[in-house]
Amino acid sequence: MAVTMDEIVSLCKRRGFIFQSSEIYGGFASTWDYGPLGVELKRNVKNAWWDAVVRQRDDMVGLDAAILMHPQTWVASGHVATFNDPLVDCKKCNSRFRADHVDLNAPCPVCGAVGSFTEPRQFNMMFRTAVGPVEKEDGSNIAYLRPETAQGIFVNFQNVQTTTRKKLPFGIAQIGKAFRNEITPGNFTFRTREFEQMEIEYFCRGEDAERLYKEWIEARFQWYLDLGIKRENLSLREHDLADLAHYSKGTTDIEYQFPFIDEPAELEGIANRSDYDLTQHAKFSGQKMSYFDQERNEHIVPHVIEPSAGADRATLAFLVDAYNEEEVKPGDTRVVLKFSPKLAPVKVAVLPLAKNKAPIVEVAKKLQKALIKKTDAVYDDTAAIGRLYRRQDEIGTPYCVTIDFDTIEKDNAVTVRDRDTMLQERVSLDQVEKYLLDKLEA
Mean pLDDT over residues 334-342, rounded? Predict the structure, then answer.
């Protein structure tokens, strides 16, 4: 059964994954707040990315650059001149659209007026702001909220290389907020004006770039599979040469089949950017942006491979892909999120069979306090056991541990329930922590 976005949005609101921003004031267009479970899920996605691309590699380091940068940065990068979308307005209802998203000879999608569109004009998608209390007439204190995190990496290339003494090839990774004044945001958290990027700039010699480009495509594709995305929902799309920027040697998108669109949509792009970025910043800053190869006794401007992913899009894809509706028995259907244990916001739920029996509650709370030191474990006694199981299924908790009367009176063991199979196993209380941690690690 295919999930719909309405079902995903409803689940996110009901269980505290994602809320409409400023909801008490009627909301604010295309902005979203991550709730208690959503913030844990998104943090787990980012941690899994960081673990894969930084901690597990000896050729990668991290960076956290400022959102506000010198305005000349965006001149050098080309964003001031070329980061534009063509826009049209409906002269009757004043609705605004991207020119490539509407048929200019068709009726307005909002009011139905025919022949009402203005001529397309270019609109820069960067958010402008003033540094200081007022904007100066000459524009000398204008700055921009960064539209991507990549430029913070490029301008710090020399700082990072000098302090870490990394040899080519090596990369710099960064997770951070970016802002684009999108004209047609939408589809829940898929396209928003404020979003979070997970970006890598991998510096290398020009003759190695094509090989490394292919290696990064393979590695990044496998990352989604390793974290549970179904293979049939993922695809690769190589950009046509005619669609590439003049400096690009190649770009390939990892795409996911979201339920709100007919064709697969981009999750992550991997680009072979040549030596354009460092060359541009050297030209506009007057500073050297080269690398000295001691073995070859030469200065070179490194080429760059750029894997760039959206943390919000990845989180949405993992949510959608994990969603299942299963008929447990005739007339009894459960909703279950089959997250990879690495991503699940809650790993273990400890549940007392009877919340009014002090010995049972005492053991349950003691176990949860022990588990929370090692993993994401919660205690819940706010409903009957069957309802508690369904609640944990719906938020994707891999394992539930039930403390019952036999735990206290007979065998000093607990019941461990598996989310995916719903099978239950009796495990000794003194072994359950190791049992669960082994399962989660596997």
Answer: 97
Q: Which of 15, 391, 44, 58 is nearest to 228 (CA)?
A: 44
pLDDT tens figures, 405-433: 999 999 999 999 999 999 999 999 999 99
Task: Name which of 168, 121, 148 is nearest 65 in CA terms.
Answer: 148
The answer to whether 258 and 229 have CB atoms below 8 angstroms apart is no
Q: Which residues contact 60 (CB under 8 A, 6 or more apart)?
A: 53, 54, 170, 171, 172, 173, 200
CATH number of 346-441: 3.40.50.800
- Domain chopping of the chain, boundaries: 5-69+151-319, 346-441
Q: Cα separation of 260 and 279, whole Å?
A: 40
CB 254 within 8 A of CB 220: yes
pLDDT in tens, 113-139: 988 888 887 777 888 888 988 878 777
Q: Is the backbone of residue 136 left (phi > 0), alpha (psi -120 to 50) or beta? A: beta
pTM summary value: 0.90
- For the 5-69+151-319 domain, the top CATH level (class) is alpha beta
